[in-house]
């Protein structure tokens, strides 16, 4: 009832104002009208230009986003077989012929309306249907906190895979592509994966070169490996890496196994975000035009457009990093000729949930 009275009072006030204006006379009103007409025209022209520019920008982004390889999760199926990855196992690694029965993590699968978890997959097909997911990073966007969190999943983690024999976590991708990898992560570590984005390593170097390279701080040992593989002359310290050098850097394992490699991958992604933020609009558009056809995702153009609209804000969020398995929460063993890390599932589940959701 009070709300209705307020509306009525506003209407009466507007009527009194109109009456008082009407008493100024027709000539004054017409003179005022002519002045407003010029301003209105200028305002309409300016607004029209802004609308056209914004519309062109949106249409341009929409065109680019339509170039993405859209593959919903229900478009994938299991393969008949995969190639095992036996390797030369260090002599000090204990051989386990009958590992304890693996178990999924316990508790509900956690999610939050404020947090969106996007699984970033870097794969190398190597003649297989899906190939191996050598890079697996959960990118967590927390809009309430204004944070970006990157959680690396080491490819050598030995876990339970739904419907398949226990294996390295990246074997889940080889068996069933993104859906089985997502289910494996959710069942083991009990965090909801909302979307996925996959990029083949073959496109990785081109993406970085399109932005003019990335700046990363490297060690002397890392520089030596990059130089040997790429024929370059990098030294220790902050270096601006080409796409080929950045790929070489992100795949180094022999210095410190998979632990250091996942850190290097996160370093490259962080550098890539910084390089993109500092690029010119022309470079950004060229980058997107070349990159997006190489991207496979279950995000449709509407979702991608929404993220593109948010991207200037999201790229300025505070960035932090994490890795599974956590230090001291896994055991290095040899199973079926594979050198793997058997994680303490419960400890790592709790650690990942705490990092993402706090």
Outline the structure in words:
This protein is α/β, with parallel strands linked by helices. The protein has helices at 2-22, 26-65, 170-189, 201-210, 220-230, 243-250, 257-277, 281-291, 301-314, 345-357, and strands spanning 69-70, 115-124, 132-142, 147-153, 158-159, 167-168, 195-200, 214-218, 237-241, 295-297, 318-324, 330-335, 338-343. The strands form four sheets. It has a seven-stranded mixed β-sheet, with helices on both faces. The two termini are 45 Å apart. Mean pLDDT is 81; it is low at 1-35.
Biggest sheet: strand arrangement? 1-10-7-2-3-4-11
Portion in strands: 15-25%
Radius of gyration: 28 Å
Shape descriptor reads globular
What structural category arises from helix and sheet content? Answer: alpha/beta
Mean pLDDT: 81
Helix and strand run: HHEEEEEEHEHEHEHHHEHEEEH
How many helical elements? 10
Instruction: Give the helix level as a range of percent.
Output: 40-55%
Terminal Cα span: 45 Å
């Amino acid at each position: 009832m009070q709300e209705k009275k307020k509306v009525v009072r506003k209407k009466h006030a507007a009527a009194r104002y109109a009456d008082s204006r009407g008493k100024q006379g027709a000539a004054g009103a017409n003179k005022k009208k002519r002045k407003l007409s010029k301003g209105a025209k200028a305002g309409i022209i300016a607004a029209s230009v802004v609308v056209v520019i914004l519309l062109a920008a949106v249409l341009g982004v929409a065109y680019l986003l339509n170039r993405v390889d859209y593959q919903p999760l229900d478009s994938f199926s299991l393969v008949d077989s995969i190639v095992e990855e036996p390797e030369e196992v260090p002599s000090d690694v204990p051989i386990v012929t009958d590992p304890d029965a693996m178990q999924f993590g316990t508790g509900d699968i956690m999610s939050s309306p404020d947090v969106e978890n996007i699984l970033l997959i870097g794969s190398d097909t190597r003649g297989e249907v899906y190939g191996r997911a050598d890079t697996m990073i959960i990118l967590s966007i927390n809009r309430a906190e204004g944070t970006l969190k990157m959680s690396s999943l080491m490819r050598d983690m030995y876990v339970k895979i739904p419907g398949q024999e226990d294996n390295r976590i990246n074997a889940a991708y080889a068996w069933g592509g993104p859906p089985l990898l997502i289910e494996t992560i959710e069942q083991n570590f009990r965090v909801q994966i909302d979307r996925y984005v996959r990029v083949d390593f073959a496109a990785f170097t081109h993406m970085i070169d399109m932005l003019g390279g990335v700046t990363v701080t490297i060690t002397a040992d890392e520089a030596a490996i990059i130089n040997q593989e790429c024929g370059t002359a990098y030294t220790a310290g902050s270096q601006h890496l080409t796409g080929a050098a950045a790929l070489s850097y992100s795949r180094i394992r022999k210095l410190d196994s998979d632990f250091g490699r996942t850190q290097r991958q996160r370093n490259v992604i962080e550098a890539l975000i910084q390089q993109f933020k500092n690029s010119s609009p022309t470079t950004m558009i060229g980058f997107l035009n070349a990159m997006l056809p190489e991207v496979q995702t279950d995000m449709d153009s509407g979702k991608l457009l929404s993220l593109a609209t948010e991207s200037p804000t999201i790229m300025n969020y505070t960035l932090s990093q994490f890795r599974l398995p956590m230090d001291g929460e896994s055991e290095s063993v040899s199973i079926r000729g594979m050198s793997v890390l058997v994680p303490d599932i419960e400890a790592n589940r709790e650690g990942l949930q705490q990092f993402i959701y706090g």
